[in-house]
Specification:
This protein is α/β, with parallel strands linked by helices. It has a single domain, classed as Rossmann fold (3-Layer(aba) Sandwich). Helix content is about 45%, strand content about 15%. It is built from 8 helices and 7 strands, in the order αβαβαβαβαβαβααβ. Strands 3-2-1-4-5-6-7 form a 7-stranded parallel sheet, sandwiched between helices. Strand 5, helix 6 and strand 6 form a beta-alpha-beta unit. The structure holds NADP nicotinamide-adenine-dinucleotide phosphate (NAP). The site of NADP nicotinamide-adenine-dinucleotide phosphate has 26 residues, from helix 2 and helix 5.
Length: about 270
């Protein structure tokens, strides 16, 4: 007897009717993920600090027939995370997926870097995850919802970088660790937690590598030289993995850092 997933494999990727919170939705990854889910019939609550960019993303989502709720907040506190959850519940009645697409980097060599700059990277990339996980995870456990979490790591969670990345590399190492510990802590609730770890793809975060900045250009070239597939990433390269991790296809996958990096970490 052929099981339903084998008879209809695309049903494994069905996200229709699911409701997602996406932080950093004004950014390259957040926007693309929100659009991908909405295009497939998902409902998305998009969060970010930039009102104008949020409105633009919301308009794009509506243009593909998607349902969207807008929350003008970054995950700077538990109150912010709770406000995103409350808005999503008011708009759609349930939340099934959490995508933490917000993130930040401030490169600087440690002998020149101020502690505040290091802390800002850790706060945006690590504390933000903790607030979102606490708010949404508490709701899922109470409501017995088998939610799905996608965090954004980086090849920098595993590799150092000579370009002044004490904050960024440490924050992504912590993201990898949070991925594993949340996955194991929540496994008994049926909640899956995974991370996507790309190498450089074009976004606001990496714009400094695509301009005249000498350190930026050197950083980009060094990444490029290490990528066996011979090019940098584009955000579309990440959407297959995002959809996999947010759909029933990944129900037996948790605690994993998924490298979508053109082979960077293979060499
Ligand atoms: N691009 C890459 O090459 C690359 C590679 C590996 C991993 N990643 C990771 O992928 C994730 C998404 O990055 P992206 O490339 O899509 O970047 P992006 O285009 O810059 O988007 C990130 C979003 O995060 C929000 N944000 C910025 N600073 C923040 C802060 N201090 N606190 C909270 N939120 C802040 C911004 O939205 P608002 O201003 O609207 O709040 C921004 O739109 C990040 O975790 C990043 O580290 C990126």
């Amino acid at each position: 007897m052929i099981s339903e997933p084998l008879r209809n494999p695309l049903s494994l990727f069905n996200v229709k009717g699911k409701s997602a919170i996406v932080t950093g939705a004004t950014g390259a990854f957040g926007r693309a993920t929100a659009l991908t889910l909405a295009s497939l019939g998902g409902k998305v609550t998009i969060a970010g600090g930039n009102k104008k960019e949020l409105a633009d993303v919301a308009e794009e989502i509506r243009s593909v027939g998607g349902e969207v709720c807008v929350v003008e907040r970054r995950p700077d506190s538990l109150e912010d995370a709770q406000a995103m959850l409350d808005a999503a519940l008011a708009a759609f009645g349930h939340v099934d997926q959490l995508v933490v697409g917000s993130g930040y980097n401030k490169a600087g060599f440690i002998h020149e870097l101020a502690l505040d700059d290091w802390q800002a990277v850790m706060d945006a990339n690590v504390r933000g995850i903790w607030f979102m996980a606490k708010a949404v995870g508490t709701y899922w456990i109470k409501e017995k919802i088998k939610g799905k979490v996608v965090l954004m790591s980086s090849v920098r969670g595993r590799h150092g970088n000579i370009s002044g990345y004490t904050g960024y590399c440490a924050s992504k190492g912590a993201t990898d660790s949070l991925t594993r510990v949340l996955a194991t802590e929540w496994a008994k609730h049926g909640i899956t937690v995974n991370a996507i770890a790309p190498t450089v793809f074009r976004s606001k975060l990496t714009a400094w590598m695509f301009g005249d900045d000498e350190l930026g250009q050197a950083t980009k070239q060094r990444s490029l030289a290490r990528i066996p597939l011979g090019r940098l990433g584009e955000v579309e390269d990440l959407m297959g993995m995002a959809l996999y991790l947010l759909s029933p296809a990944s129900d037996f996958c948790t605690g994993q850092v998924m490298y979508v990096d053109g082979g960077f970490t293979a060499g």
